[in-house]
UniProtKB/TrEMBL annotation:
Record domain Periplasmic binding protein: where: 28-282
Subcellular locations according to the entry: Cell envelope
Protein known as: D-ribose ABC transporter substrate-binding protein
Keywords assigned by UniProt, alphabetized: Signal
Family: Belongs to the bacterial solute-binding protein 2 family.
Organism from which the protein derives: Sphingobacterium suaedae
Keyword NADP attributed: no
Domain of life of the organism encoding this protein: Bacteria
């Protein structure tokens, strides 16, 4: 009987120690808009890798571009008492409530790449300078088209600020040239297949376009596919934004004209480092941390490959 009691006490102590060890290891939830886009896979996995290197536990949640699913992930993270949330939102306005719930529960939220339209809800927001990046693309676009021609713009998700920052940066340059005419502007939802379908439809009404400006690289690849099927891939210049591996290869192969190189690994690692500083007691962080975007063309693509 005494032996049995001692065994139970030993097992209980071991269980308590394991529970304490788990509690001491900080847990980070990484909630991203979608894992259907390779760029966001890099963002999420880079954050998880850095978190593990720093001794934290990390779990990735895929919102699948669905605000309701995103809300479920936040409820899960709050109920599971995660210590921090690294967040890539589905909607600049629609995601604010989720961030505010986490804040009310005492969980800091560090936004990566996509911002929410709130200054106070997130602890900080680490964002690509999409506007300036697309100014550079706009200038190169003008040069490549010799200041004249017809073009199409494929927008990203209409609820994402990156969509409009990129579009505004691009148009701040291109709209100064009256002989550059935009014949169509439609959303491709940052999705490769959707962009291909949208451009296929546009080409039926405007078969004589000279260029396509896309709000991200996934749409740029979709646009190229549509042009290839239509036999126009060698006549129409495609411009993207992200710096994804497949587009860098496509630039080298003269399939895509240019892209804007974002730095998902840098944004992800910075978010984890900020979370680590928060765990150590830091409470004051810059509200927005801009990360520069670099123009990638055939002339310099080897530097990035």
């Amino acid at each position: 009987m005494i032996t049995f009691i001692l065994l139970c006490m030993t097992l209980c102590l071991q269980a308590c120690k394991q529970s304490a060890d788990r509690k001491e290891s900080k847990q980070i939830a990484i909630i991203v808009s979608t894992l259907n886009n390779p760029w966001f896979v890099v963002l999420a996995e880079s954050a998880a890798k850095k978190a593990n290197e720093m001794g934290y536990e990390a779990r990735i949640f895929d919102s699948q571009n669905n605000t309701a699913l995103e809300a479920d992930h936040f409820e899960n993270a709050i109920a599971s008492q995660f210590d921090a949330i690294l967040f890539n939102c589905t909607d600049a306005d629609g995601s604010i409530g989720n961030v505010e719930k986490a804040k009310a529960a005492g969980i800091p939220v560090f936004c990566m790449d996509r911002e929410v339209n709130s200054v106070d809800a997130p602890t900080t927001q680490i964002l690509s300078d999409s506007y300036s990046g697309c100014i550079s693309i706009g200038k190169y676009f003008v040069q490549q088209l010799n200041k004249k021609g017809k073009y199409v713009e494929l927008l990203g998700l209409v609820g994402d600020n990156n969509t409009w920052n990129r579009s505004k940066g691009f148009h701040s340059v291109v709209d100064n040239y009256p002989d550059l005419v935009m014949v169509a502007q439609q959303s491709g939802d940052f999705d490769r297949n959707k962009a291909m379908e949208v451009l296929e439809s546009i080409l039926q009404a405007h078969p004589d376009i000279d260029a396509v400006f896309c709000g991200n690289d996934a749409m740029a690849m979709g646009a190229y596919q549509a042009l290839f099927v239509a036999g126009k891939a060698d006549k129409v210049k495609v411009f993207g934004f992200d710096g994804s591996a497949d587009v860098l290869t496509a630039i080298k192969e003269n399939k895509i004209a240019a892209t804007g190189m974002q730095h998902p690994v840098l944004m992800a690692e910075t978010a984890v480092q900020y979370a680590g500083e928060y765990f150590k007691g830091k409470t004051e962080f810059p509200k927005k941390v801009p990360v520069s975007v670099e123009l990638v063309t055939k002339a310099n693509v080897n530097n990035y490959l």
